[in-house]
Amino acid sequence: MKKQKIDGPIYDARQLGGGKMVVLGIQHMFAMFGATVLVPLLTGLSVSATLLFAGVGTLLFHLLSKGKVPAFLGSSFAFLAGYGAINVDGKKPELLPYACLGVACAALLYFVLAALCKGFGAHRVMRFFPPIVTGPIIIAIGLILSPSAINNCSSSGDNVGLSWLVALVAIAIIIICNIFGKGMVKIVPIILGVVGSYIVAVCLGLVDFTNVANADWIGLPFQYEDTVFSIFTGDTDWGLVVTSIITLVPIALATMVEHIGDISAISSTVGKNYIADPGLHRTLLGDGAATLVASLFGAPANTTYGENTGVLNLTKIFDPRVIRIAAYFAILFSFSPKFAAVVSSIPAATVGGVSLVLYGMISSVGVRNIVENKVDFANTRNVIIMAIILVFSLGINFSAAGAISFPIGDFNISLSGLAVGSLAGIILNAIIPGKDYKFDSDEDLAIKEIKKNQKSSK
Fold first, then answer.
1. Rounded to the nearest 5°, which phi and psi values hold at 95?
2. Are 327 and 59 in contact, with CB atoms under 8 Å apart?
3. How far apart are the C-alpha atoms of 423 and 435, rounded to whole Å?
4. Which of 304, 298, 334 is nearest to 103 (CA)?
5. pLDDT tens string 130-183
6. How does residue 56 score in pLDDT terms, banded at 50, 70 and 90?
7. Which residues, other chains included, contact 375 with Cβ-Cβ below 8 Å and sequence gap of 6+?
8. For residues 113 and 219, what is the distance between their CA atoms, to the nearest angstrom?
9. d(CA 137, CA 418)
10. Which of 176, 307, 350, 351 has a CA positioned 20 to 30 A from the CA of residue 114?
11. Model pTM?
12. pLDDT tens digits, residue range 81-115?
């Protein structure tokens, strides 16, 4: 039998074989790991619980979205300010269950929007999210993430030069494998980049194995006192319950917009319209359910991960089964503190080098989304909408405050740059006349996708 040549998108990874599917799944787990564990490290939540419910949340998302969308769900950065407000900037970790309660209530807004999409049709909701809105949002997501990649690349204090060397090794390996690699080498550039860069870091003395040696092999991912349920078994502070809900629920308005942008990015990357099939209502339901379950058990809010979209774009392997394999591994390794310590020992410079490529890929997907949908920039309204989204998103995010804050009663509400830019773009698109993009009905979109797939399979 002639050896298969892998040079195009693979929708059924079984043709690659079980072993290669497992390796691809591990690659996706590594792609999400750095950012996913960063949230609990910043907030004081459990790293193991975060891994567990990233895996469980991903499987739940796939169940509710009919197993069609190749998305991995990891920790959301959008709620960091909310956790900090309740946890008093990390000084009162015993209050984190209250913050998790607020996130659980925020997750319920996903169900409301999902019901609206189901009742009125996604195409009616998507009229507020045409390519001129979603494209710049996707671009902004990648650009906003980019400073964290640069900071990680130069994270070793007095050894900044060595840090950049480690990061550049990761970048070089990814580029070489992806451009010049053949077969499996071309498919797993992220893992090869991580391993190669990690070995260089070990040789340079940048890896500390102390925590690895002290960690247990097996342990429970979370404790009861870290869950939301523990709030109601002791002296409940009902005032703090209300404060947490009021503080954290509005953040869901921003994360839902980010969800639509992420699903648009995955659709653009894969070449399938997941807003039509399985439907935006199902992906919203899956994202909300994953966040609800995770927060109840003391893990961060979940969200669809741009890092894994970048991996999809690099590997051209779009089979959702590979993502589910990554979820199984995340669940398995969440029960091993030893493994968590090993992966946490990966230098920030390695994570930075990998992230630098992936975050750039996210922004590139946004550009492609605009180009492929033939957005007319001779139309002034389109120029204005894109300009406002990018300036608000990037300008506010990189300002001294990092957000726009305003008081409501005794509480301060903070909106990130991405939230402000997204909302501004949605509003401007709705009120400025001259719309030049029309969404078909859900049924028409589905029929188009079926015909396209039938044509490509001939």
1. -90, -5
2. yes
3. 17
4. 298
5. 888 878 887 887 787 788 788 878 876 557 788 889 889 999 998 898 888 776
6. very high
7. 131, 132, 135, 382, 437
8. 38
9. 7
10. 307
11. 0.67
12. 667 667 654 557 778 888 899 899 999 989 998 99
